[in-house]
Amino acid sequence: MHVENDIKLGFKDVMIRPKRSTLKSRSQVSLERTFTFLNSKKTWTGVPIIAANMDTVGTFAAALVLAEFRMLTAVHKHYSVEQWQDFLHDIDPAVLPHIMVSSGTSDADLNKLRAILALHSGLEFLCIDVANGYSEHFVTFLRRVRAEYADLTIVAGNVVTGEMTEELLLSGADIVKAGIGPGSVCTTRVKTGVGYPQVSAVIECSDAAHGLNGHVISDGGCTCPGDVSKAFGAGADFVMLGGLLAGHDESGGDLVEQDGRQYRLFYGMSSDTAMDKYHGGVANYRASEGKTVKIPYRGPLAVTMLDIQGGVRSTCTYVGAAALRELSKRTTFIRVQEQENRLFN
Ligand code: 5GP
């Protein structure tokens, strides 16, 4: 039996050490980054925060708000081609570079993807993800899509180790999505015992990706703006958020009222709730690996985005990074056994 003895770290295990800085104000910090992607050769500029492709988060309504912040939305895969057509009908072309189309990995998914991509030539990004990005079927699908769409920027995942990051990039991905099990409504670690603490996953995957000129998304596990900064500090080029963006006006999930307070349902994409909704129940060979929660209604998404943006900008000033691009170079993590003071929580 082989046991790896290196300690693997999650967001709760580290903090970022402050460094001398000449920056006067967080308003001086630019959060925009420009990337040229490995396989598509496309160049993109924007703020590299992505709304997750969950039907409660990656909605068309959220996409319009995030595009105003120059951020991205991985629009979930459950919209029909007709819904996409309506959405794209009179869309501001400036929104398109901030949208990712998502797809599953079946033949039916591929046909639907073809129909969506045929609607508008301005769609630049595709997100193909499965819970287990290590599967051969997944890699074969990725290769098929790349063979068909040479200049599409393709996100593929999810994985947590360097060697599989390399394999996905060499199989046609531009951006590898890293994260197995850290999600707020994910139960993979409990159901299967499989996972990888997120900070270490991002450090290891981004090290491998950057060696090949590929890029990495840290996906899942951010509970506050500070975690978003830690993900960037660990080397993530992009950070994907689910739970932090759920429960807003623009989110999906039923609104429910209880004791005079409003809540929105939020659930994992492989929870019983999602499987009942899209597949008529949980197939009996698999366990549901997501949970359903009720979160207090949070108002407009724009307010939360300002808060996240403000937090990351502030991190940059603490370490003297004038631009987000410099954050990981200027990050030194310290291992800790405490985070915030919870006296008033
Ligand atoms: P969060 O930001 O909420 O911590 O994590 C969001 C991520 O959780 C998503 O982008 C996705 O990778 C993951 N996720 C979403 N639904 C499920 C699910 O039902 N099961 C698992 N294992 N992960 C999920």
TrEMBL record:
Record EC number: 1.7.1.7
Organism superkingdom: Bacteria
Active site: 186 (thioimidate intermediate)
Residues noted as binding K(+) in the record, renumbered to the chain: 181, 183
Binding site for NADP(+): 108-131, 216-239
Single GO biological process annotation from the record: purine nucleotide metabolic process
Catalysis performed (reactions): IMP + NH4(+) + NADP(+) = GMP + NADPH + 2 H(+)
Keywords: Metal-binding, NADP, Oxidoreductase, Potassium
Top EC category: oxidoreductase
A GO term from the CC aspect: GMP reductase complex
Cited CDD domains: IMPDH
One GO molecular-function entry: metal ion binding
IMP dehydrogenase/GMP reductase domain: residues covered: 9-338
Subunit record text: Homotetramer.
Role, per record: Catalyzes the irreversible NADPH-dependent deamination of GMP to IMP. It functions in the conversion of nucleobase, nucleoside and nucleotide derivatives of G to A nucleotides, and in maintaining the intracellular balance of A and G nucleotides.
Assigned protein family: Belongs to the IMPDH/GMPR family. GuaC type 1 subfamily.
Protein known as: GMP reductase
Highest classification ranks of the organism: Bacteria, Pseudomonadati, Pseudomonadota, Gammaproteobacteria, Oceanospirillales
